[in-house]
Amino acid sequence: MASSTGDQSQMVKNGLRTKVLTLDSMNPRVQRVEYAVRGPIVQRALELEQELRQVWPRAPRCPPGHTGVAELAPAPLAHATRAEGLGRAQSACLLPSPPLPGCEEAFHRGHPCQHWGRTGYGAEAHHLPAPGAYSASSGIQLIREDVARYIERRDGGIPADPNNVFLSTGASDAIVTVLKLLVAGEGYTRTGVLIPIPQYPLYSATLAELGAVQVDYYLDEERAWALDVAELHRALCQARDHCRPRALCVINPGNPTGQVQTRECIEAVIRFAFEERLFLLADEVYQDNVYAAGSQFHSFKKVLMEMGPPYAGQQELASFHSTSKGYMGECGFRGGYVEVVNMDAAVQQQMLKLMSVRLCPPVPGQALLDLVVSPPAPTDPSFAQFQAEKQAVLAELAAKAKLTEQVFNEAPGISCNPVQGAMYSFPRVQLPLRAVERAQELGLAPDMFFCLRLLEETGICVVPGSGFGQREGTYHFRMTILPPLEKLRLLLEKLSRFHAKFTLEYS
Amino acid sequence: MASSTGDQSQMVKNGLRTKVLTLDSMNPRVQRVEYAVRGPIVQRALELEQELRQVWPRAPRCPPGHTGVAELAPAPLAHATRAEGLGRAQSACLLPSPPLPGCEEAFHRGHPCQHWGRTGYGAEAHHLPAPGAYSASSGIQLIREDVARYIERRDGGIPADPNNVFLSTGASDAIVTVLKLLVAGEGYTRTGVLIPIPQYPLYSATLAELGAVQVDYYLDEERAWALDVAELHRALCQARDHCRPRALCVINPGNPTGQVQTRECIEAVIRFAFEERLFLLADEVYQDNVYAAGSQFHSFKKVLMEMGPPYAGQQELASFHSTSKGYMGECGFRGGYVEVVNMDAAVQQQMLKLMSVRLCPPVPGQALLDLVVSPPAPTDPSFAQFQAEKQAVLAELAAKAKLTEQVFNEAPGISCNPVQGAMYSFPRVQLPLRAVERAQELGLAPDMFFCLRLLEETGICVVPGSGFGQREGTYHFRMTILPPLEKLRLLLEKLSRFHAKFTLEYS
């Protein structure tokens, strides 16, 4: 046995020895992972909430995704949306538990859920597995079929094959799986992946963990965070010096930018990807969250198919969706799917194999996804109620998107693009030079310093722009539009006042 | 732009071009991943089920985890266990949906679930997040605390710190996360991980994907699959020639072996890990599944703590548990946890960061885990009913374990160790030389050939031993003990008869 070093024996003699697993010895790629959305700001917000609870035990508590202190944390969830409540009732119905004593009748008489998607208690009759059993690794076939029908309705009848739909543990799981397939090579041949800046940090975190090369392309803040193909070209050319770019990620509607891409833009991106031989990943989890007049969601799949040959039959595409967004916001169930288009059949088999190693996505999340993709049809008794609730939720989000833009743009030193879609604003803040210097002394990014001070002094929790990426010398933060309208107004005003005070303090 | 090659231009001209992502260009590590538990046999079983359904649409359907044809597929789930039903009712209660019309009363009057763990409908009062919201990435604090209390009761009062408990998406998720932390180095310094042979293929699949070195140690089939420390030494010594072994995985009770380790064995393993500086991963998901007289589950944590210094305060350990096994078998919810012991604090932070990138484990799975770790106390009204159901489930499993061993050992050419615990038998089968040769002609492992023939001719689906690993020249298969007793008897007899016929055919 050749294990012991002198060093180690000495430490053992002293009764002390280093751990097997330390920062020095652990996976260096994991160390490079960063994930601002649950980073120091959110950690600190949770600590403050704990402290608060100690002095005021009955403080109202928000779901942790929201870090209760401010109800402004990044995890999206529609606050008290009624459609959400309806969704949950549905989900409960899908659980084939023995009905609680006294509930049997309610399960069987005309509860709305019987008309929305499948009647849950009849799971057996529909050949659905019990949620307590593993499902197929690609998800329950019946739900894959419902997803395919949803995609077809969404895309004006363009066919979708259920066998190209794979259910997942939230969209994140599917995104990571597709990225895993793409990573290969070493040194100059290592896979590069183009991602937008600012981006949702799942992308940078996953690329770091996989040891792939992150290739940044910048969205144009001056044009409401539009994606510019010339910038894609620039990023690609530069990247080819040191890696092999093989994939292009697009987030539409944008997180954190709120941008909704035009059809022309999507066509140009597809043409670019085709010409440059890039696999396209379209993160479309906010497809139901479009608010701005004149903005409309166009799926990459639909645009691709309508472009015809050679694009339609050849461009490889993976499109992701989730139960965590939209008007339901059921993030805790971790439901999602990916639809792959033009993927090599053998690679698709490899993807299924990779998913199999984790057995299956959570079955309750699959059931919830089924509800998301199978809203009541016009002939269903619950149709009118559902439509009214959905419209109310979306109209309120639209009003909050508008309000956010308006209040921020009235504040000196803050500018905010229209929140065309998704659930966030990503305003730009001017930070005085002395604040930037002070941050540097503290070893903090300047916007991190600003956000920490904001949290400590107002209880408002927002995520610094540096966690998403931004042009050198600019500073931003991401804030959700989810709090109730009047509360959101107060928060926006409070934040604006804090910024003015902060600016004064460091001027 | 330096992208196009002549080759490619030619193909484009012909309207044909290779995909960006092909078997040749994809992640070679992903290609090396193998996962027999959902491999070709199970795929084929699903195809057969589909075919069957076409000719007989009302064929009874099993949860897909079970590939209905035979109800013998590897995914474990207690068949029609009553305790399971109780678990689900609990889980439904945890969903804070508005009660269905007509159910309000049942939710509030004395339904047993109100006495088992938390009353679900009162989630708000207990500061539990709604299942529709993200939880903290490490899981709901209240549930981490319940898990810690469960561990303390299990281990005779040895303290467990909730902050060392991390909830996960099934145990698989946590196992992969800990392995990710451990992988570092290149070439001769690449991390090696010792795993048992036969093993649960999550380990080999994950190590392949991470590019870590799999170091096999063989369990001793002659001694009921016992773990022998001399064999650990042999494996370690050989591995040190080509990698840096840093971790040791132990599965107890064993999957697929059914072995339950003695306390002496566990002590010896801990001493070995300590001396050789190996991080210990204890896969203890079958801790509630021990059947054999004289066998008892000892947790690695408890044994480690009772060994005192220097082990107790220094040996690094991660212990995994799941909602998918035990007497509840709620696999579709994907609940699980890891408890880490003596982990470096900075590494623990890195682990939390890694978990944060996926936001949180599914909240319904967390709720179900809470039920698993919080059974009714003796003072609860549901205590007697729960105990009776639990005992009935475990007694039936014990009877089926015994039956399996007995029927197989009566069959010529099949030998089966006692199924001391877990949910599987892993019998050894003699295969005639001509069958081995025929398999080689077909490019199949001999036991894969046997299992495929078995499936085609009897509809019985078992997984070949080659997917779990076995000594060269020996052949096995894994079969669950989950079907109802009388059905299991028929299946065991049918399988034994098929083996006799197969042997005759190739002799």
Describe the structure.
2 copies of one chain form a homodimer. Chain A is α/β, with parallel strands linked by helices and 507 residues long. In chain A, 42% of the residues lie in helices and 11% in strands. Chain A is built from 18 helices and 12 strands. The first copy, chain A, has helices at residues 6-13, 28-32, 40-55, 82-94, 104-108, 141-154, 170-182, 202-210, 229-239, 263-275, 300-307, 311-314, 345-356, 363-373, 383-410, 433-441, 446-458, 485-505, and strands at 165-169, 191-197, 213-218, 244-251, 279-283, 317-322, 335-341, 414-415, 424-425, 428-429, 463-464, 477-480. The first copy, chain A, has a 7-stranded mixed sheet with strand order 1-7-6-5-4-2-3, with helices on both faces. A 3-stranded antiparallel sheet of chain A has the order 9-12-11. In chain A, β4 (244-251), α10 and β5 form a beta-alpha-beta unit. In chain A, α6 (141-154) runs parallel beside α14 (363-373), α15 (383-410) runs parallel beside α18 and α16 crosses α17 (446-458). The longest helix of chain A is centred in the last third of the chain and has 28 residues, at 383-410. Chain A is globular, with a radius of gyration of 24 Å. At the A-B interface, α2, α4, α5, α7 and α8 of A face α2, α4, α5, α7 and α8 of B.
